[in-house]
Amino acid sequence: MFTGIVEEQGVLRQCEETGLVISAKHILQDLAVKDSVAVDGICLTVTQLGEDGFRVDTMPETLRRTRLASLHAGERVNLERSLLANGRMGGHMVQGHVEACSPVLATREDGIGLDVVIALPPDLRPYIVPKGFIALNGVSLTVVDVWSDRFSISLIPYTREYTNLGQAYEGMFLNLETDIVGRYVARLLQSQSTQFNASRDQQTLV
C-alpha cells in the first residue's frame, strides 16, 4: 500500500523487457530485496539492491497496461516506498495497481499552478469524480473537472518540482489508478442494483 506522496525521482539506468535498473538515493536508506516500491505508481518488487540503485522485474502484463514500455534510459520516474504502519498518510490509499495508461490532451499555466487535461478511458468513467482522488504516475492528486471523455487536475509548484509530472506535455502518457474506495462503492451499488432488478423480475413472473 502507498499514499501517492512521491519521495524522490529516480533515473532509469537500464530498460529491458524483463526489468528495470533505477538509480536512487533517499529511498535506499531502508529498502531491501523483496520489498515493494512504487515506480511511476506501479507496485514492483525489488530483486537486486546496490549502493546507488536497485532492480525490479517487469511482467508482460505490466508493460502492456502501463507506460513503462515507452520509457528510455535517462528518464526520470517517481519513487515511493510502501507505507509504514506508524507513518502519516498524507495522500490517499494507492495500491500501485495501474488500471490504464492515458495521454495528456492539454496543459495550461494558471497562476502558480499547471492545469493538465487527461483522456478519460470509458471503463474508468464511473470512478473519476470532481474533487475525488486519483493517482497519476503514482502521485496522489485531486480531480478538478470531469467530462465525458477527459478530466483535469492542477499541479502545485511542489508537485511540479519534485515529480515527473512537472514535465507533462501534450501527448505524454500517464499511469492511472482510480480511488480504491470509490471502486468498492461503485461495485457494491452495482451489485445491489442487480439483485434488486433480479428480485423484481422474479416477483413479476410470480
From TrEMBL:
Keywords, ordered alphabetically: Repeat, Riboflavin biosynthesis, Transferase
Catalytic function, reaction form: 2 6,7-dimethyl-8-(1-D-ribityl)lumazine + H(+) = 5-amino-6-(D-ribitylamino)uracil + riboflavin
Pathway(s) served: Cofactor biosynthesis; riboflavin biosynthesis; riboflavin from 2-hydroxy-3-oxobutyl phosphate and 5-amino-6-(D-ribitylamino)uracil: step 2/2
GO molecular function annotation: riboflavin synthase activity
SUPFAM superfamilies recorded: Riboflavin synthase domain-like
EC number: 2.5.1.9
Domain Lumazine-binding: 1-92, 93-189
GO biological process: riboflavin biosynthetic process
Any Pfam family: Lum_binding
Recorded superkingdom: Bacteria
Mapped Lumazine-binding repeat ranges: 1-92, 93-189
Known function: Catalyzes the dismutation of two molecules of 6,7-dimethyl-8-ribityllumazine, resulting in the formation of riboflavin and 5-amino-6-(D-ribitylamino)uracil.
PANTHER family found in the cross-reference section: RIBOFLAVIN SYNTHASE, RIBOFLAVIN SYNTHASE ALPHA CHAIN
UniProt-recorded name of the protein: Riboflavin synthase
Species assigned in the record: Dictyobacter kobayashii
